[in-house]
Each structure stands twice: as structure tokens, then as C-alpha cells.
Write a structure and sequence with these properties.
Endonuclease that specifically degrades the RNA of RNA-DNA hybrids. With 193 residues, the protein is of the alpha/beta class. It has two domains: 5-138, Ribonuclease H-like superfamily/Ribonuclease H (Nucleotidyltransferase, domain 5, 2-Layer Sandwich); 145-186, no CATH class. It has helices at residues 44-57, 68-74, 76-89, 118-121, 123-146, 152-155, 161-170, 181-186; strands at 5-11, 20-26, 60-66, 97-101, 112-115. The protein has a five-stranded mixed beta sheet.
């Protein structure tokens, strides 16, 4: 019988700087924590408020990550699945079933399913989406202070025109994903594709 369902989602796959971060969230059986939605549809202030609720009201939550070096070595898909596995492994309870946003189920040691659009339809996944987004955004603020001039706190590591322009003038920092085309191009190693 399925009692504990974990929802898992990630943030940062499309970024060219910083880690990919995943979160896993478990609600108590029968618990109904309303108000969650895909983190991309929420304002930063509302995400922060909801993340506090997730941490205080859920039965369990955890965050996992894959570092830039792992992303460059493994590729972004494998690094994302690794971050998801780390988030589930860090949960203080073992879920009976895991629902993962997307179309790929990570190599977890517990059963579950991939749910396309799950961040908009499954409360636990939406909660995980919010938690991962808040965690990663806060980390990008720290990286912004460590690597000034790239405006990482503004674009959160995504390849905006501002970010690409700063890469072109400053070169890549330690937190940039060298396997990604915009970073390779800024370093003079682009293949033109």
C-alpha cells in the first residue's frame, strides 16, 4: 500500500553557470497543503513564502545537487538524474512511491513514475519545484558575490544576453559550465554549431 509519496523536481538545467539542484518533498498521508504551483509561475516573494511552508509543514524534504564539474563530466541529463537521486536519498523517511517531474525516472532504489507536467499537477512535485528554485536562487546570490561582474544574481545563470556579453568580456569563471556552447564560445573553443 502506498502511504508516503515523494515529489521530485529540479532547477537549473538550462543554465550555463552554477549547479543543477533537485528537491524531494513528502507530505504526511492525507495532508493537503494547498497553494502550490510550478515555481516558474510564482513571484520570487511568493516562492520564498511557500518554501518556508514546505520546510515547516511537510513531513520531510531534502535538497540534492550536482556540481558544475559533474555536469561537465557527465552531461546535464545525467547530472540532473544524479541530483534527483541525492535529494531522495537525503530524505529522512523512505517514500513508498516517487513522482518525478518530466519524462525520465532516475535510477532510484524505490518505485515511482515520471510525470510530464507534474510541477503543475502534483502537489508534492510543485512543492519540490519551489524548494529547489528558492535554494538555487539563493545560491546564485552567493555566487554573484564570489564572481562579481557576471550579474549571476540577476539572471540566475541562464544564458541571457547580459550574461553572454559578460562572458565575452570577462571569460568564464569557476562556476561556469564549460561543456555548454555559450561558455565554450566565450572561451574561444566554439565549433560554430
Amino acid at each position: 500500500m502506498v502511504r508516503l509519496v515523494a515529489g521530485v523536481d529540479e532547477v537549473g538545467r538550462g543554465c550555463i553557470a552554477g549547479p543543477v539542484v533537485a528537491a524531494a518533498v513528502v507530505f504526511a498521508p492525507g495532508q493537503d497543503i494547498g497553494g502550490f504551483d510550478d515555481s516558474k509561475r510564482l513571484s520570487p516573494a511568493l516562492r520564498l513564502k511557500l518554501a518556508r511552508r514546505v520546510r515547516s509543514e511537510s513531513l520531510a524534504w531534502a535538497v540534492g545537487r550536482a556540481e558544475v564539474s559533474e555536469i561537465d563530466r557527465l552531461n546535464i541529463l545525467q547530472a540532473t538524474l544524479l541530483a534527483m537521486c541525492r535529494a531522495v536519498a537525503a530524505l529522512p523517511v523512505r517514500p513508498d512511491w516517487v513522482k518525478v517531474d518530466g519524462n525520465r525516472y532516475p535510477p532510484l532504489d524505490c518505485p515511482g513514475e515520471a510525470v510530464v507536467g507534474g510541477d503543475a499537477s502534483v502537489a508534492q512535485i510543485a512543492a519540490a519545484s519551489i524548494l529547489a528554485k528558492v535554494f538555487r536562487d539563493q545560491e546564485m546570490q552567493v555566487l554573484d558575490r564570489l564572481y562579481p561582474g557576471y550579474f549571476l544574481g540577476v539572471h540566475k545563470g541562464y544564458p541571457t544576453q547580459l550574461h553572454v556579453d559578460r562572458l565575452s568580456s570577462l571569460g568564464a569563471s569557476f562556476c561556469h559550465r564549460r561543456s555548454f556552447a555559450p561558455v565554450r564560445d566565450a572561451m574561444g573553443g566554439g565549433s560554430g554549431s
